[in-house]
Specification:
Elements (H helix, E strand, L loop, with lengths): L16 E7 L5 E10 L4 E10 L2 E6 L7 E6 L5 E6 L6 E6 L6 E2 L5 E8 L5 E8 L5 H4 L14 E2 L3 E2 L6 E6 L5 E3 L7 E6 L5 E6 L13 E6 L6 E2 L6 E7 L5 E7 L12 E6 L6 E2 L24 E6 L2 E10 L2 E8 L10 E4 L4 E7 L4 E8 L2 E9 L6 E3 L5 H4 L8 E7 L2 E8 L10 E7 L13 H8 L3 E6 L8 H5 L8 H14 L4 E11 L1 H12 L5 E5 L5 H7 L3 H8 L7 H6 L13 E6 L8 H12 L4 E6 L6 H4 L2 H18 L1
Parallel strand pairs: 33-34, 33-35, 35-36, 36-37, 37-38
Antiparallel strand pairs: 1-2, 2-3, 3-4, 5-6, 6-7, 7-8, 9-10, 10-13, 11-12, 13-14, 15-16, 16-17, 17-18, 19-20, 20-21, 21-22, 23-24, 24-25, 25-26, 27-28, 28-29, 29-30, 31-32, 32-34
Length: about 650
């Protein structure tokens, strides 16, 4: 066995991530995208691979230096449609499964998403937002400005919305001819053909200004020939994803009937509604955790969400995922009858992060799942309750075989009568008779959760000789809705208490130097990092990233602007002190520990002015601080930014703690 070494920052360039797996209609084959880093060109590339669901050698289906992603099987299992950038634009291509060249179907400018074959395979349904590219030379000759008329006018990672809305389109899978099915001043999402191909179920909000935070999105039906959407649900609702019931007479969706701003107040559960828009039925009244993935990582980040009816022994079941206890797992329930109320059946997952999943109508399932010590691989499982899976890939075996890594130890930290789930990661070559500096990592959200997934940043810090502690304090998802919602409008209270309990427990370890503690985090984790440094002197140094530093200005500047109003239950001009009292920048003048500030200039979630303000406060008070502003990056820099910017960010963090801890 070759000699192992410590993980390095540039190992990011060597990591390969399987994404978007899809299993064929007959369950015999799996297609997936393999995402890699092109370090020379500072970009990501991906191609499609095909392999037997029983294992064996894979076959590369597409080649080239582009992004091939989001593969979808045709109903007969003979073709695969996918989205590719090979024409320098994002368009739909199709390729035979048994070999041959890919053929371009659409020639559109803009964003394409949510592809689905019509049941007869003759058309592809998709969402499209037109975004015409403008020649830079021509643009320079004209006035350049944005004309904004809607409250919901931007989204982090996307930018400012163009004038064109996102609508339903269909394309002929033979000729490539396209037709627009809907139009108007509204956006459409989550489209699905009915089993007979005559209707399309989707989500939309006809009032653009009510689209903030997904509130007031309703289910709608659209005729397959196109036309105005017909509203199916009229109650205020927060809907995450949907599917058709197998009989085609009702819609199943994941969501709840909270009002505007109440998107985390109630549990998301599985509901069914008839096509008449009445007779709502709660299929999972016992569900208390999100039926979609919200595990935080800087490697495998996914938004796995699943609702799929499938046949088992002549009866229908419904497959879904659940985000819980640091994991994201696959479950199923019976379609009908008393057995449904007895609870869900676990189909896949123990200590795993299921970040992508697909199920066919026979109950054949494929998942992309990460574990604590690998960034992600492809697994197949039959949804029959046997809980047996087959690992198809071992994508990063060569790289991880070279690395000297330690596995985080699971811990239940005590805070009075509360128990906080967390982990402690020790340095490679750890010795009980030594004293190590310790770092507290804080996740974002705050409704994200740390979990059973590989986190490069933490392993890099451990490789430098730090003990790294991370946990899911109150405010985190995965531990019931009450645990998550109790900090709503009250950041810096019991969540702070939980994190200090973790800090105290770690600092009491005989192998931790309690005088050398550091803290770091991003987004809400950046909020809490700045908050903790302004409220105690326990930490010797900190790194705050993409922080929400001023809740008052966050109201007017963030893409989640109305979140602040709903958090405080008041407009900022009515209760300005309430906003400021929960703003860590308001206490920043008390910070004495050296603080590194990292932010992205195109961050629309926590705008860069939050960091500007913090740096100005600290510098004006003569504090030790530095400020790194990444250009052309959004809020998600750490997990989806340009590869070299991600590496630079990690190097800056390591350097800061080396200098001050």
């Amino acid at each position: 066995m070759p000699k192992q070494r410590k993980v390095r920052v540039d190992d990011l360039f060597k990591m390969v991530l399987p994404e978007s797996p899809a299993i064929s209609p007959d369950g015999t084959q799996v297609v997936y995208a393999l995402k890699r880093v092109d370090a020379k060109e500072n970009r990501y590339l991906s191609n499609l691979w095909l392999r037997s669901a029983q294992g064996g050698r894979p076959r590369q289906l597409t080649r080239g230096d582009q992004m091939d992603a989001a593969p979808v099987w045709s109903p007969d299992g003979k073709r695969i449609a996918f989205i590719s950038t090979r024409d320098q634009k994002s368009n739909i291509w199709i390729i035979p499964c048994d070999g041959g060249e890919a053929r371009q179907l659409t020639r559109l400018e803009g964003v394409i998403s949510d592809m689905e074959f019509r049941p007869d395979g003759k058309e592809l349904l998709f969402c499209h937002r037109p975004m015409k590219k403008v020649d830079p030379k021509e643009r320079a000759k004209k006035a350049t400005f944005k004309h904004i008329t809607n409250l919901h006018h931007k989204m982090d990672g996307f930018g400012y919305f163009p004038a064109a809305r996102q609508h339903l389109w269909a394309c002929n899978t033979s000729s490539g001819g396209t037709r627009q099915l809907t139009s108007g001043e509204f956006d459409i999402g989550s489209p699905h053909w009915s089993p007979d191909g005559r209707q399309i179920a989707c989500t939309t909000c006809l009032d653009i200004d009510m689209q903030h935070e997904g509130s007031s999105f309703h289910l709608h039906l659209v005729n397959a020939k196109g036309g105005k959407p017909r509203e199916l649900t009229t109650r205020p609702a927060h809907i995450n994803h949907l599917c058709w019931a197998p009989e085609g007479k009702s819609i199943i969706f994941a969501g709840h009937f909270g009002g505007p701003g109440e998107w985390i107040k109630f549990p998301y559960q599985l509901w069914e509604v008839s096509l008449r828009g009445e007779n709502y039925t709660n299929l999972t009244p016992q569900m208390d955790n999100w039926p979609f993935n919200f595990i935080i990582s800087d490697t495998a980040m996914g938004d796995a969400a699943l609702l799929k009816p499938y046949r088992e022994d002549g009866a229908w079941r419904i497959a879904f995922v659940q985000n819980e206890d640091g994991a994201c797992r696959v479950y199923s329930i019976p379609r009908e009858g008393a057995a449904r109320m007895s609870g869900a059946r676990l189909e896949f997952g123990d200590q795993v992060n299921t970040y992508a999943v697909h199920v066919n109508g026979l109950g054949d399932c494929v998942v992309a799942a990460a574990k604590m010590m690998d960034i992600g691989d492809i697994y197949t499982v039959k949804l029959d309750g046997a809980f047996k899976s087959r690992q198809l890939t071992n994508t990063n075996r060569g790289l991880f075989g070279q690395l000297k890594l330690t596995e985080p130890e699971e811990v239940r930290f005590k805070n009075g009568n509360k128990e906080v789930h967390g982990w402690i990661l020790k340095p490679p070559g750890f010795r009980e008779d030594r004293k190590y500096p310790a770092l507290l990592e804080i996740h974002g959200g705050p409704m994200g959760q740390y979990g059973y997934t590989f986190f490069l940043e933490m392993h890099l810090l451990a490789a430098q000789g730090y003990v790294v502690a991370f946990s899911n304090p109150r405010g985190s998802c995965g531990y019931g809705n009450k645990w998550m919602y109790c900090t709503h409008g009250r950041w810096g209270g019991v969540d702070y208490d939980d994190l200090m309990a973790v800090t105290n427990a770690v600092s009491r370890k005989p192998w931790v130097d309690s005088k050398r503690l550091g803290v770091l985090g991003g987004s809400y984790g950046g909020f809490m990092t700045t908050w903790m440094l302004g409220h105690n002197k326990r930490f010797k140094a900190g790194v705050t990233m993409r922080q929400a530093g001023n809740r008052l200005t966050q109201f007017g500047a963030s893409d989640y602007n109305m979140h602040e109003y709903y958090s405080f239950g008041a407009w900022p001009w009515d209760k300005p002190l309430a906003y400021l009292k929960q703003s860590p920048n308001f206490y920043a003048h008390k910070i004495t520990a050296p603080l590194l500030i990292i932010h992205s200039e195109q961050d629309l979630r926590c705008p860069v002015s939050q960091a500007d303000e913090l740096f100005t406060i600290l510098k004006s008070q003569g504090r030790t601080t530095e400020y790194i502003r990444f250009e052309d990056e959004s809020h998600g820099l750490s997990r989806g930014g340009k590869p070299r910017n991600r590496v630079e960010r990690l190097e800056r963090i390591l350097d800061w703690f080396k200098r001050y801890l």
